[in-house]
């Protein structure tokens, strides 16, 4: 109900306290993001990773602070609904000239639902849709940085313009040879402009803040010429001498999609107007959902808000039903999906078989570990929700029976809001991007290979699919190792294949830090009885891992075996795992690039000075880096 007048002093006080709480949150968020540049300049990689983890907790801490203040000063939970309706209108008024209105609306939702203990159905008191437009917001203060800067080079001044672009970021660490690197960038751009007429609007637009993640800083922008726009990113890294280099030039939407992948850690970016950054990034990656861009910028709560709005919109414009997700059913997680929607929904079962020695809280802890860890492009990000409601008629009966059997504590079917329609309420779930399970992807290739018969082209295509998948699987394992992660259950079914053919891990209930595991060889039997024993006769600790035992479960198909042993045989050798573990414990910082290492200028032009530097010898867990 819309209030007839604004006559409650408590409503104004609540709205003002709420916006104060949000402003404090975003001020601290920006401050931590700004400090990323100093950590990059001083090569403090472990601090950079630590800050990325800790910043994730900022939002919930500020929400708790706001709730505490509102209860203490206004007894907010006891206020009548008329006061809350007025508080929302006052709050909207406070957002008219705000630079982060969409984030502030989400903050209001978070605080309000904590105080009123309402769930999905109480939409009168939250922002179900945005109330304030984010179009054309800009900071007009004289000293403020614009969202992006535009540069207008000619063919002759392109190299000088690249140098000016980099200089404008005012990095307090010298470059090895900026003119040389700018020349490489100029050559890369000119290769795309070869035999192309430069139009009147030829320009380079660059976002005004660097994007920091792990050991890299990224310049993000686009080249505009006539009707054509080409996205690009320039990774800036440290070389062996501790000086800065432009490592490569990434071009096109696919390269940018990989850089901003949902399977990578969040960036640290100083943004006065985050919606303007998202708008610019969308012009580079139009297929990238806005929620994933907000996530990539470290604004995960806003990402959740946008995802849920997109989800509700999709439900309104579709009619298919939720079903048990295709693939082998897990022992810990129950997974379902909506065929028309590119995500899967995962809820923790109430009971696990004896071989799964874990608890609900431990499983949630594993998912939190992945959220806070560097995912190195190999672990899917998840969105976590509570009290999610779905229309009953959208659920297949088989799926509801499965939930009743395996997770009854997580299910409620009722008409909570009294509108005459039953709803399915899931108490707690995770949502992930849908991928093709790797076991299904491989089985499809096996079937195509068998069906090819004498069709050599079809057989070659199927074999190529198998080989690329197995090659990617091994690379995924090695990237996880670089990030100090042992996946635990390495079966094909726990990995997925993305749209671009990349293999990503998504089953986290057995995940462990590599450094917490003990990698052993299978002991030789000492007697005939031990050799013929039907069960393991040697002692096995809780975190003992026997890499040789992977082979029987992974390498049954001869084509898979050949490819795996050719490229990844070391994964069956405990010495490989122990050597990586020892290097991590010694403080070695591994490199995991968000692009093909063959694209690096150092490899293409042969400059030894641009190769990766040795890691600092400090006793800490590995930081999986993005170049050095």
TrEMBL record:
It comes from Ramlibacter lithotrophicus. ATP binds at residues 325-331, 346. It catalyses: L-seryl-[isocitrate dehydrogenase] + ATP = O-phospho-L-seryl-[isocitrate dehydrogenase] + ADP + H(+). One of its GO terms (biological process) is tricarboxylic acid cycle. One of its GO terms (molecular function) is phosphoprotein phosphatase activity. Bifunctional enzyme which can phosphorylate or dephosphorylate isocitrate dehydrogenase (IDH) on a specific serine residue. This is a regulatory mechanism which enables bacteria to bypass the Krebs cycle via the glyoxylate shunt in response to the source of carbon. When bacteria are grown on glucose, IDH is fully active and unphosphorylated, but when grown on acetate or ethanol, the activity of IDH declines drastically concomitant with its phosphorylation. It is found in: Cytoplasm. This is Isocitrate dehydrogenase kinase/phosphatase. Belongs to the AceK family.
